[in-house]
Amino acid sequence: MRRSQLFVKTRRDAPSDETARNAQLLIRAGYIHKEMAGVYTFLPLGLKVLNNIANIIRKEIDAIGGQEILMPALQIKERYEKTGRWDDKVVDDWFKTWLVNGTELGLGFSHEENLSPLLKNFINSYRDLPIAPYQIQTKFRNELRSKSGLMRGREFLMKDMYSYAISEEQHKAFYEKAKLAYQKIFDRLGIGGQTFLTSASGGSFSKYSHEFQTLSKAGEDTIYLDRKKKIAINKEVFNDEVIKDLDLTRNELEEVRAIEVGNIFNLGTKFSEPFGLKVLDKQGKSVELIMGCYGIGISRVMGTIAELLSDDKGLIWPEAVAPFKIYLARLGDAQDTVRAAEKTYNELTEAGVKVLYDDRRDASAGEMFADADLMGLPLRLVVSQKSLQEGSAELKNRTSESTQLIRLDKLVETIANNQ
Amino acid sequence: MRRSQLFVKTRRDAPSDETARNAQLLIRAGYIHKEMAGVYTFLPLGLKVLNNIANIIRKEIDAIGGQEILMPALQIKERYEKTGRWDDKVVDDWFKTWLVNGTELGLGFSHEENLSPLLKNFINSYRDLPIAPYQIQTKFRNELRSKSGLMRGREFLMKDMYSYAISEEQHKAFYEKAKLAYQKIFDRLGIGGQTFLTSASGGSFSKYSHEFQTLSKAGEDTIYLDRKKKIAINKEVFNDEVIKDLDLTRNELEEVRAIEVGNIFNLGTKFSEPFGLKVLDKQGKSVELIMGCYGIGISRVMGTIAELLSDDKGLIWPEAVAPFKIYLARLGDAQDTVRAAEKTYNELTEAGVKVLYDDRRDASAGEMFADADLMGLPLRLVVSQKSLQEGSAELKNRTSESTQLIRLDKLVETIANNQ
Lengths: 419, 419
Prior knowledge:
The structure is a homodimer of 419-residue chains. The first copy, chain A, has 2 domains: 32-311, Bira Bifunctional Protein, Domain 2 (BirA Bifunctional Protein, domain 2), CATH 3.30.930; 326-417, 3-Layer(aba) Sandwich (Rossmann fold). Helix content of chain A is 29%, strand content 30%. Chain A has helices at residues 21-28, 44-63, 77-83, 112-119, 168-188, 240-245, 298-308, 335-350, 365-375, 385-389, 411-417, and strands at 32-36, 39-42, 67-68, 74-76, 95-98, 104-107, 133-140, 155-165, 195-201, 208-215, 221-226, 231-234, 254-268, 278-280, 286-288, 290-297, 310-311, 314-315, 326-330, 355-358, 379-383, 392-397, 403-407. Chain A starts with 20 loop residues before the first helix and ends with a helix. With 419 residues, chain A is an alpha+beta fold. At the A-B interface, strand 1, strand 2, helix 2, strand 3 and strand 5 of A face strand 1, strand 2, helix 2, strand 3 and strand 5 of B.
């Protein structure tokens, strides 16, 4: 993409009411725009990052048998009355609305009450199980305060999967598969090393739920981490019994702040029983289905990456989520510079390399370099009179200080091999 | 995909409260699930169709310089007060909601009031223009009645683009490009032949707006069509003056019902003036930007295709939007049949052909064939004891009565070439 055709500009300062580092950086770099607290517009580059994250999640979830669907935001009151979740005293972050005829509706904060009644139409036998429908969909949560940028949204993109099983063993087997898939997802997203499986409160159907917590001072959670064993306990359930239960030792645990980027939960029959979602098992006995739920906040992950992988110059995207691999800066508008930069842009693009080409005539080298750092693309490539004297372009990693000259005729192969 | 792993089943009958043909067929074939009037869940195959449609639109819109972004559903009251669109008497299909602190919000039915204030941050000069941000996003419209299936949703997926120009000529040039892109889109979606550019009421800033109307008895609009010239007039502006203006002849016009699948509109300065969105032109004069808007209802297009391209047996998807190219039916579970079917499935899949493989052991040939027709994939391929006696599989087009035997060793090349 040509920078001259991008309608977005970078900014020196974030809005004064934006206190979260992730949002400050993302706004300054032109990835998002703040509409109100907890509500953002994703600008062209921000949407590319969001989609890249979603696609990594999609692939790993498909690989364990997830089936993607899309459920609506508008929610039917009666279903939530059945599960006891309509009352604002029970669920305190509802957005409610109504039809012209006065019928009350809610905006979905989670979708158990959609999916269980839907599945009654399709699941008749143990042979139909296990299944795991999921969606990548916009959630609405009426947070009282929302000051953490993309990390606590009132409207945000989420991957939510729901598994249904005929038995506790079948449930457990899928639950463990999902756990592994989650770790793989966070690895691919570039935050695996700082993300830890954390036991948290389990509710009525199992002792623990499991969170994936990414270490960050900006996190809203406190966890107790065993770095060697790579597991943690959420403060909400931290006590001697739990420490013993997880085979940990108190003085090897470190108290740290963390961001909950994912969670998995055994819901038992909480959302199958109220909807009569049961089938005959192999022995011909009618059994209520056992349900698990598995969430990843996609926009929250984007905020987490921005929060963690950044320095005083700006963002540092891992290649897997970066909107482009290369920031190509053209210095000056001498004819041969323009010609060489255009050729480089075309060749790289044709080779399938994603390039943001800064072809602006009114920007200085300093402005271009500052933008390249702020926007945080993995590589910066400079075509200038000086580099052309060597028949080369100058390549720099976002996180390195040194540059290297790459001969223009070797550029495509060099860059295609550069990780 | 293996049919045995798809949690969705086809149904003999649609819900009794569903009167629209498109929704009846799509529900019976397992593409969508009705939540309430005008609100549907997209099941795995339905979501694939929706995404295929969205991707065709995305490519053609990108090709004319559209820049994809994603704006939120939650809308700020003050902005709509500025444009006079907050009042329910002015916009009668609002969904309204509120924050915990009592602040009223709306759910977006269109996004002019989002985008114009956003662009004030980025557009400073005539050099920044023209631009055309667009999104593929969920809209909310509180329709009093919603009985047309996917064709009139209360919550639905829409592509909405907004162009901003410095002058009437610049606006007009982009408007004409968008018109051509729209025709291309409907051609690629398989409904181009039945879709006609229709002049409709224009509002304060131009004599006409333009709709793309697809002929269908199920349509809610009446248009007067000149089939030779391939243009039409919407009933709402149909009079002698308009007929003359468009150089048409009254007795060559045919009154027909049609579905509005897209529209393009000159908004003038209606949504730039209230937000002070103006820049200096080349002569240094401060100018309010001229705006166009360009909508395509993506889920409505899906409903329109279902309505038009179907017969008494079921759906007939054009290949460009079909969730799979082939319905592969395996008849019987003799060892060599299973082996040949598995091999066929794997080979086609590896060759990049999208196959829905009916590997169910408990379904009869009749059930499989009925499902293949109902689901409407372009090709049906049968592997059976009988076909294997000829070293072949039996191929049939969805719309043809005749079948042909294709040797298994020629299958991949034959199918890859079959349009």
